[in-house]
Amino acid sequence: MLNFLQRIGKSLMFPIATLPAAALLVRLGMEDMLDIPFVTAAGNGILTNLSMIFAIGIAMGFAKDGNGAAALAGAVGVLVLEGGIGAINEEINMGVFSGIIAGVIAGMLYNRFHDVKFPEFLSFFGGKRFVPIITSLVMVALSFVFGYLWVYPQNVLDATANWILNAGELGVGVYGVLNRLFIPVGLHHVMNTLIWFDFGTFTTESGEVVKGEINRFLNGDPEAGHFLAGFFPVMMFGLPAACLAMYAAAKKHRKAAVGGMLLSIALTAFLTGVTEPIEFTFMFLSPLLYLVHALLTGVSMVAAYMLDIRHGFGFSAGLIDYSLNYSIAENPFMLIIIGLVLGAIYFVVFYFLIIKLDLKTPGREDEDEDFVEETQEVGQPGGASNDYEAKAYQYLEALGGPENIKTLDYCTTRLRLQMSDRDKVNETALKRYGARGVMKVGKQNLQVIVGTTVEFLADAMRRRMEQGNEAPPEAVNKEESRAEASYSSRQLTETDFVMPNTGLVMPLEDVPDEVFAQKMMGPGFAIDPEGDTFTSPINGKVVQVFPTKHAIGLETEGGLEILIHIGLDTVQLKGEGFETLVEADQPIKQGDPLIRVDLDLVKGKAPSVVTPVIFTNLENETVHLLKQGRQQKGETGIITVH
To answer: Per its UniProt record, what CDD domains does this chain match (predicted)?
Structure first.
C-alpha cells in the first residue's frame, strides 16, 4: 500500500510542475501587474482544469514507459468519469480526485493492455489503441458507482476540510508538522494535493468557482494563503541556516570540501523552495533533528497565522514566488522578520544538537579524505562534472547493474527504484558519486536522493539500461590515466623531493616505534626535526589533514601518496601544539608551509618528535635513501623512488 501511494506521489510531480506557469500567467495579467485580462484567463485555464492535467500526468507516471497512449487514456478516463457522474448527480464535485482516479486506472490499464493482440479483423484496435477504449469502459462503470456513492466520501472530505480550514492555529500547525513528517516516505505530495487544489471554495467576480488554497489565493480569496505563508520562513531562512550550522560544525579540514555543496543546496531552497536536498542530509542521521525541523515548521505556520499573514506560491515557498506574489499578499514583510528569528533558532538548535550528539552531518563523517576527494571527481557538489552519461554509468554500477533494476522512476529530487536484489546495492559508492542519501522502502524498493537534476540522470540511466551499461570513453580513459600514473609516472627523482624541515635524517629502522620501524605503514625514512614549520617536499596536493593536526597526507603529481607523521604518539595531544596551514585538496608546491609545531611543548608531552615520512601506496616501486645525518630544509637528493 505504501509503495502504491508513493507511486501516486511521484506521478503528481509531473502535473504539479505546470503550476509555476499558471501562477506566473495569473499574476502577470492582473491589474497591479500588466493589466492584461486574457493573460490571467490563460493562467486560470490551467488552474480550472487541474483534474484533466492530473489525469494525464498521473497516467504517464504510472505507465511503465511514460507513453503518450497512457496520457490519452487518462484524458479520456476523466472526461467519461466526470460526464457520467454529472448526469447522475450534479451536486457531486470530485475535484482533483477524479483526475487522480482516472490517471491511476489509465496508467495501470496501459501496463496491462498496451501490447494486447486481437484477431486480424480487429487488429487495428489492438495494442496501445485499445488502452483508451478499455479505460473509457472501466470509467463508465466507475461513474455509475461514484455517481451514487461518492456523496459519502465527499461529505467526509468536506467535514475534514472545514475542520482544517477553520481550526485556526491548530489546523495550520498540524498541517505544517505533517507536511514535513511525510517527506521521508514521499507522501507529502498526496496531502499537499488535497490542501492546495481541493480544500475550500471561492467564487470569483466573474462567477467562476475555484477550489484549493493555491487557486483561491491567486484569484483573490481573502481567506486563502494561511496554509502557504508559514513555509516561506522555513524554506528561505530556516533550512539555509541549518546548512550554515552544518558548515560551522564540520571538521576544519573538511569545510572547503562541503562548503560548496551546502551553499548550493541552501541557495536552491532560498530561491526556489526546493528543500529535499537539505532535509536528506540529516533526515536519517538523526530522527530527533528531523523532528525538530518538523516542529519548527509547525511553529512557523502558527506564527504566520497569528500575525494574520497571507501569502502564496505557484510552485514552492522560495524568493521567486515570494517576490512574484508580494503585492497580493497580506502583511508579507512580517515573513522576513519571522524568517530571521527562525533562522537564528535553526542555527543554534542544529549546531548544538550536531555537536552534542556528534551527528555525522556533511563534513563530520568518519570516512577518510579519499572519499571526499573522489566525490568531487565524479560530480558531487563541489566538483565540476555535469556529465550525466558518466554519472549514469556509475550509478547503475553501484546499484548492481541494469539487470538488478526492475523499475526506475523519479520525482522532484529522488530516484525511485524497485530492485531485484537490494543487497547488491553499494550505498557507499552511491554517496561517493553524488547521492545525498539512500532510503529503503519495503522489501525491494529503494529511493536515492540526487537533487533537482534527477530527471537528467534518470533519463541517462534509462538509455543505458536499454542499450547496455558499457563504460563511457571518459571512464576508460580515466582508468588508463590512473594506470599510467600508477606505473609510468610513479617515481621521484633527486629533485622531485626536498627536505620538509631541517634536522637529522635516519632510516626507518632507527625509529623508536615498531609500527614505523617494521614498515607496517609503508617504506620511507624519518627526520628528527629542528625547525617549527614543516613545508611541502613535493609538488602536488594535500589529500588529508588529520583532525588532531599531527599528520598530513600529500600526493605527488604522479600519484604517489606521502604521509608526514610529526612525532610519535602525538595523536594523544589532540592538536595541542600543532597549527595546520593548509586544507584538504589544496594544491601545493615544494617549500609551501604545511604545519607549524611548538617543538618544545611536543617534546615535553610526547615520547619523541622524530617524524616518519612514509610512502603509503607503493606497489612495485622502491624507496632509495641517498643521504643521512643533518640536512637543511629544502635540500635535494635525499631520496629517489623507482
So the answer is: PTS_IIB_glc
Q: Are strands 639-641 and 623-625 parallel, antiparallel or unpaired?
A: antiparallel
Nearest CA to 433 out of 344, 372, 508, 497 is that of 372
Cell of 505: 635524517
Is residue 430 within 8 Å of residue 417, measured between CB atoms? no
Q: Which residues are catalytic?
A: 411
Enumerate residues 6+ apart whose C-beta is below 8 A from 522: 563, 614, 615, 616, 617, 618
Which regions of 470-515 does DSSP assign to beta strands (E)? 503-507
Q: Mind listing the pLDDT tens digit for each residue in 179-224?
A: 898 876 556 766 787 888 887 889 888 888 888 899 899 888 999 9
Task: Give me the helices (H) in 532-635, please.
Answer: 599-605
**Residue 417 cell numbers, joined:** 527504484
Spans of the chain, pLDDT less than 70: 1-7, 9-10, 12-13, 16-17, 184-187, 189-190, 284, 365-386, 411-412, 451-452, 473-490
Question: What is the C-alpha to C-alpha distance for residues 222 and 226, in angstroms, rounded to an integer?
Answer: 10
Instruction: Using the Cα atoms of residue 558, residue 559, residue 564 and residue 568 in order, give the sign of their dihedral.
Output: negative
Residue 366: what pLDDT? 57
Helix (H, G, I), strand (E, B) or coil at 269: helix
Of 611, 609, 596, nearest to 565 (Cα)?
611
Residue with cell 556509475: 394
- The CA–CA distances, whole Å, from 261 to 257, 279, 306, 434, 572 equal 8, 13, 36, 10, 32
Q: Are strands 503-507 and 551-556 parallel, antiparallel or unpaired?
A: unpaired
Look-up of cell digits 489492438: 126
**How far apart, in whole angstroms, are the C-alpha atoms of residue 313 and residue 193?**
14
The CA-based angle 471-477-480, given to 5 degrees, is 110
Say if residue 526 is exposed, middle or buried (CB neighbours under 10 Å; 0-12, 13-18, 19+): buried
Angle between the 96-113 and 130-149 helix axes, to the nearest 10 degrees? 140
The CA distance from 287 to 33, in Å, is 44
- A 10 A CB-CB count for 147 gives 17
- Which residue, among 207, 413, 157, 200, has the nearest Cα to 312 in the 3D structure? 200
Residue 83's H or E segment, with its range, is helix 68-88
Phi, psi for residue 49 in degrees, rounded to 5: -125, 35
CA dist 192 and 20 (Å) reads: 15
Contact in structure between 586 and 540 (CB atoms under 8 Å): no
What count of Cα atoms within 13 Å lies in the side-chain half-sphere of residue 113?
20
Q: 641: which residues sit within 8 A by CB, 6+ positions away? A: 490, 491, 492, 497, 560, 615, 618, 621, 622, 623, 624
388 half-sphere exposure, CB direction, 13 A CA radius: 13
User: Do 188 and 177 contact (CB within 8 A), yes or no?
Assistant: no
